[in-house]
Amino acid sequence: MALKTAVLAAFLSVLNLCLPISAVIQESLLALPRVSYEFIIVGGGTAGCVLANRLSENPKWNVLVLEAGPSHENILNSQVPPYVFRLQNTSYDWNYTSTPQAALGGRPVALPRGHPLGGSSSINGMFYTRGSSSDYDRWATVTGDPGWSWRWTKPADNHDTMGQYDPRAHSKTGITSVSLPGFPDAIDTKVAEASEQLGGEFAWNTDTNNGDSLGIGWLQLTIGNGERSSSATSYLAPKYLNRKNLHVLVNSRVTKLVQTSPGNKPSGLESIRQVLPVQPKPACSFHAVRTVIARKEVILSAVALGTPQILMLSGIGDPTELRGLGIEPKINLPSVGKNLTDQPQVALTWALGINGHLRSVSDSSLLSPRRAADPTLPDKWLEEWKTNRTGPLTFNNVNSIAWTRLPDDSPIYERFSDPSSGRNTPQLEIGIVGTGYYPTPGRLILTSAVVATPHSQFDIYGVREAIRTSRRFFAGPTWEEYNITLQPPFDTDVDSELDAVIKATVFSASHPVGSASMSPKNAPWGVVDPDLKVKKTTGLRIVDASIMPFITCAHTQAPVYAIAERAADLIKESWK
Ligand SMILES: Cc1cc2nc3c(=O)[nH]c(=O)nc-3n(C[C@H](O)[C@H](O)[C@H](O)COP(=O)(O)OP(=O)(O)OC[C@H]3O[C@@H](n4cnc5c(N)ncnc54)[C@H](O)[C@@H]3O)c2cc1C
Ligand SMILES: *[C@@H]1O[C@H](CO)[C@@H](O)[C@H](O)[C@H]1NC(C)=O
Ligand SMILES: *[C@@H]1O[C@H](CO)[C@@H](O)[C@H](O)[C@H]1NC(C)=O
Ligand SMILES: *[C@@H]1O[C@H](CO)[C@@H](O)[C@H](O)[C@H]1NC(C)=O
Ligand SMILES: *[C@@H]1O[C@H](CO)[C@@H](O)[C@H](O)[C@H]1NC(C)=O
Ligand SMILES: *[C@@H]1O[C@H](CO)[C@@H](O)[C@H](O)[C@H]1NC(C)=O
């Protein structure tokens, strides 16, 4: 059965009391000029804004973006890079938590998701990491479409810092800004020195985004001019938003897809029933539900958690499961919502024994980076950031990153095969947060230990080994003068003790992918074909993190930007 789609959306409508937030981002359903559009993009997130921009390049195509959250404009905590952690559990976060995790003793884990325009790119950590070439080559192999291979994935970024990256791996014409950390930390030279001394797994890699990501190098960040560059600030910059054929509606949560009449006439308008709660706005809002029509395509870009939800609410999924939820099954696609993959991580604290005494661990906080004895400093830094976009608030406090593999003779391979896509692909990631001081170091270093290639039982072994890898790094001779000690609860090297601590503290790297995976065209599994069209439907594509058949050995925003850019090309090609 083929399903022609339109979108049934729950809108927050605005009465006269509420003014539009900007001339071009609409809060009001009443401001929408039309009922039908060539393309309707569900979710104005990382991928959604890219598509909005690229598809509206054609002035003949009216493009509508429906975003559940508010506008991204004027959110200081989103703009100032190190304020990122102030965004979780606010109205800019969907506040998801997982079900109780049996392997973690029944503990649920938090799954933050971006809720303003720009989606997760408006609240994420700004790490710009692509993964290895073989990650993309594996997508090409699994889907049978060579177009997904690394070779064809064009870079889409800008760089402004010279000498600390490989210019051959980057373009200068991209829309989103990518830059190197704009402010030094006292340990930067130590990190480089440790790499030189230790070599091997810690060998220096000038640019871990050039396809071969193994080694240690400077982190690249989606920051431009000292402030966050999100898909909303970049791809929906005013010059694009001013396009007459681009319509962006915020506070509009899509509830489901409905089938329209064969001619795609707006006949679904009366069949409006379902309203999901939309964030109330005092005194000036009410909920209204409308259907809008896509003449060409509906594109779901509601992230790996939202996209399968919308599909299931629309009757697309495993029929038995849908019936169990009281939803009438329409299209049998049992892979919807399956194979969700995320990377586990733990946070380690290291004390520096300089100046004779240690700063207490409870004193450490990513919320107040670079805190010093002078309590007026944070205000001064903000003043400097506001005036000049310079100083300690211009980056996310992570200057360097290490990508490593287990040794080839690791005993784990007796039980499991290598979950990575290839030998140039890291399995483990160590992110190094500076001490927050310059030129003399502060008294704490924070690191993250992440399994970049998660795979069921591999994970706990991987986290353990990532912790041990971090220990090896700080045992390097250059660190001796700092007398660095790993703080509780990770100050043990006993497997069983480490496992207990990992289970008690591990959290999500916030990289859920794979819940509406690509698969070869006639495969019995998967949700979308390699051209991202939803199987067994017409007029419906998925373009977001959910289509990855395997997670990249990386943070996931750069891969999502690449997916969205390629998707825009595919869509343009098919409507030529
Ligand atoms: C806290 C956090 C930190 C992260 N840190 C990093 C990092 O440092 N580096 C990195 O590379 N990656 C990071 N990530 C991951 C990365 O940001 C995501 O993988 C990527 O942005 C996902 O893009 P997307 O387009 O799939 O989804 P999103 O960007 O999340 O966009 C989905 C959009 O759809 C909207 N939406 C959802 N449901 C509906 C609906 N029913 N109706 C209308 N709209 C809807 C959402 O509000 C959102 O705007 C982080 C993520 C989080 C949450
Ligand atoms: C957000 O809330 C969840 C659930 O209550 C909690 O587990 C998590 O630690 C909170 N996150 C932050 C950054 O406060
Ligand atoms: C997330 O939780 C915060 C704190 O409880 C709340 O203010 C916010 O509205 C929630 N976000 C959404 C999208 O509902
Ligand atoms: C999960 O992904 C694998 C490929 O990695 C695939 O073989 C399997 O069929 C998928 N499962 C579902 C339910 O889609
Ligand atoms: C901004 O930069 C100018 C020129 O370098 C400098 O004089 C001024 O003090 C700076 N302002 C702040 C608030 O740092
Ligand atoms: C190093 O730190 C440890 C733990 O704080 C402390 O016991 C030890 O005395 C320190 N060593 C030196 C040489 O300062």
Automatic annotation (TrEMBL):
<feature type="signal peptide">
    <location>
        <begin position="1"/>
        <end position="23"/>
    </location>
</feature>
<feature type="active site" description="Proton acceptor">
    <location>
        <position position="555"/>
    </location>
</feature>
<keyword id="KW-0274">FAD</keyword>
<dbReference type="GO" id="GO:0033718">
    <property type="term" value="F:pyranose dehydrogenase (acceptor) activity"/>
</dbReference>
<feature type="domain" description="Glucose-methanol-choline oxidoreductase C-terminal">
    <location>
        <begin position="456"/>
        <end position="564"/>
    </location>
</feature>
<dbReference type="InterPro" id="IPR012132">
    <property type="entry name" value="GMC_OxRdtase"/>
</dbReference>
<comment type="function">
    <text>Catalyzes the single-oxidation or sequential double oxidation reaction of carbohydrates primarily at carbon-2 and/or carbon-3 with the concomitant reduction of the flavin. Accepts only a narrow range of electron acceptors such as substituted benzoquinones and complexed metal ions and reacts extremely slowly with O(2) as acceptor.</text>
</comment>
<keyword id="KW-0285">Flavoprotein</keyword>
<dbReference type="Pfam" id="PF00732">
    <property type="entry name" value="GMC_oxred_N"/>
</dbReference>
<feature type="active site" description="Proton donor">
    <location>
        <position position="511"/>
    </location>
</feature>
<comment type="subunit">
    <text>Monomer.</text>
</comment>
<keyword id="KW-0964">Secreted</keyword>
<dbReference type="GO" id="GO:0050660">
    <property type="term" value="F:flavin adenine dinucleotide binding"/>
</dbReference>
<comment type="similarity">
    <text>Belongs to the GMC oxidoreductase family.</text>
</comment>
<dbReference type="GO" id="GO:0005576">
    <property type="term" value="C:extracellular region"/>
</dbReference>
<dbReference type="InterPro" id="IPR007867">
    <property type="entry name" value="GMC_OxRtase_C"/>
</dbReference>
<dbReference type="InterPro" id="IPR000172">
    <property type="entry name" value="GMC_OxRdtase_N"/>
</dbReference>
<feature type="domain" description="Glucose-methanol-choline oxidoreductase N-terminal">
    <location>
        <begin position="37"/>
        <end position="344"/>
    </location>
</feature>
<dbReference type="Pfam" id="PF05199">
    <property type="entry name" value="GMC_oxred_C"/>
</dbReference>
<keyword id="KW-0732">Signal</keyword>
<dbReference type="InterPro" id="IPR036188">
    <property type="entry name" value="FAD/NAD-bd_sf"/>
</dbReference>
<protein>
    <recommendedName>
        <fullName>pyranose dehydrogenase (acceptor)</fullName>
        <ecNumber>1.1.99.29</ecNumber>
    </recommendedName>
</protein>
<feature type="binding site">
    <location>
        <position position="254"/>
    </location>
    <ligand>
        <name>FAD</name>
    </ligand>
</feature>
